[in-house]
Amino acid sequence: MDLALAEARAAAARGEVPVGAVVTDAAGRVLAAAGNEVEARGDPSAHAELLALRAAAAGRANKFLGDCILTVTLEPCPMCAQAASLFRIGRLVFGAYDPKGGGVEHGARVLAAASCHHRPEVVGGVREGECAALLRAFFAARR
Amino acid sequence: MDLALAEARAAAARGEVPVGAVVTDAAGRVLAAAGNEVEARGDPSAHAELLALRAAAAGRANKFLGDCILTVTLEPCPMCAQAASLFRIGRLVFGAYDPKGGGVEHGARVLAAASCHHRPEVVGGVREGECAALLRAFFAARR
């Protein structure tokens, strides 16, 4: 989560919503790390999670990440929750809960749907305070 | 839908699950068209919809597509449904319904969640028979 937080801070410094994501393998090696790049790429789908998942799979030349952990500073939205399932991530760890935009413990609860083909183990609220504080500070500065 | 079906057929010819997607603007101009590229890219998130949305926004240098229609041969999964919302697509038109993997009229029903910030108008079942026949033929040939 330290690295995910660093990616989130770097995203904030670029004017992006501060969310960071890291994919690690079973040995704890970092396969990919990314921050939000929505503004930089002009791409609303350039969420940290999707970028990190794609980079991790590309780096291993294996499109499934069943032995891997996706660690992200914010509860993933429905797009990223479903992407974690499509990449068959073994475990999803996230920091702040997102009642407004989250799609794991809130909203569409994508991974809980009966039709979800692969459900990662989910651990939410990890270093929640630090992760949420980054987002609060970012949005407070913009108001 | 003709162009989306052509993209789906081209995807099948490449060994991809035959799904095609097209983004058109208010004047009916095609901004982007894509077929599934999951196998070719080794990227489980390389669904036709996400590729077409990204290409359409990049081509216009405008990350929102509120005046556009996303036409796809199959009901989008939760990832692509949420992506359509994030790109603020005006209307989503799809062909075959997907009770097993769909996320619009089935499963997580992403766009119906109270927390969904932008809901495109949705029209499902357009040329459903042709769209579904392509998928059935593809999977029958693989069994």
Helix content of chain A: 25-40%
Strand order in the largest sheet of chain A: 2-1-3-4-5
Q: Which regions of chain A contain 5 or more consecutive residues with pLDDT less than 50?
A: none
Tell me which oligomeric state these chains represent.
Answer: homodimer
- In round numbers, the mean pLDDT of chain A is 96
**What is the rounded Rg of chain A?**
14 Å
CATH topology of chain A: Cytidine Deaminase, domain 2
Q: Summarize the main sheet of chain A.
A: 5 strands, mixed
CATH architecture of chain A: 3-Layer(aba) Sandwich
* Count of beta strands of chain A: 5
Number of helices of chain A: 5
Strand residue percentage of chain A? 15-25%
Task: Provide the CATH superfamily of chain A.
Answer: Cytidine Deaminase, domain 2
Can you give me a brief rundown of this structure?
2 copies of one chain form a homodimer. By secondary structure, chain A is an alpha/beta fold.
Write a structural description.
2 copies of one chain form a homodimer. By secondary structure, chain A is an alpha/beta fold. Chain A has helices at residues 2-13, 38-41, 48-60, 78-86, 128-142, and strands spanning 20-24, 30-35, 69-74, 91-96, 121-123. In chain A, strands 2-1-3-4-5 form a 5-stranded mixed β-sheet. In chain A, strand 3, helix 4 (78-86) and strand 4 (91-96) form a beta-alpha-beta unit. In chain A, helix 1 packs parallel to helix 5. The longest helix of chain A has 15 residues, at 128-142. Chain A is globular. Chains A and B meet through helix 3 and helix 4 of A and helix 3 and helix 4 of B. Chains A, B: This is tRNA-specific adenosine deaminase.
